[in-house]
């Protein structure tokens, strides 16, 4: 017989939480992601007119998870709903009923309708158990690959992080450190438009998708007060030859944009920049870095590069409607 007493111990509340509380809960979750952060909700409100709805998931009186869902009304009738990489869990190994109640709540709150356009990308590992969980709750899987990336644990000592580098990454890093490159750190976005123009050109030439310049610009706006944007440039003399853009979200960070010139490739500027990014994030007490996605089929070179840094590779369960 099912134990309904445990289900009754699960409570989900919507929009009962302050910005400060949300930030603190994101910090407690550890492996947070940019898409569940408060600045992302503010940036997407301006760029896509989608409003954040903030859920807290409690079990036996304590908050154990949080989830941000984005909504938009169109012409007073149609509705768009997006759940990107949630929920975030503050505790591990919770009873199955907690996860079941949450996903049933989402399905009940946003039932399938002809005038409702839903897209759910759960922050769940791609396992048969998780696929079954979502199917039982009434979700239909979209035939796409799940998001894959690499978590890098920055709480490790510098010596351990360096030892975990693959030889095909460590050797280029050592070479880059002997090339006389200068590191420039920009937390105010002085060079953001410069980087975004170069990145847009790269996207066109290499036919890959990435965040829109407008979204990134508004992310900068809503992270500026806490210096939660890091734009690092590698200079050869006075000439920038490579750059990376990273956004912090409490105890986590996400690599979002990168650019390398031909000279930068020759001088291993990206190895230089990623390593210095890791050291800078450690100074800021950031414990986890999401390396921003891997795709062995369509971006084999980038995937090999990121795998060389070490870390924990993961693949999410995929997209649902």
TrEMBL record:
Pfam families: FemAB
InterPro entries (alphabetical): Acyl_CoA_acyltransferase, FEMABX, PG_Glycine_Bridge_Synth
Superkingdom of source: Bacteria
Entry keyword set: Acyltransferase, Cell shape, Cell wall biogenesis/degradation, Peptidoglycan synthesis, Transferase
Keyword Transferase: yes
Protein family membership: Belongs to the FemABX family.
Protein name: Peptidoglycan bridge formation glycyltransferase FemA/FemB family protein
Source organism: Kiloniella laminariae
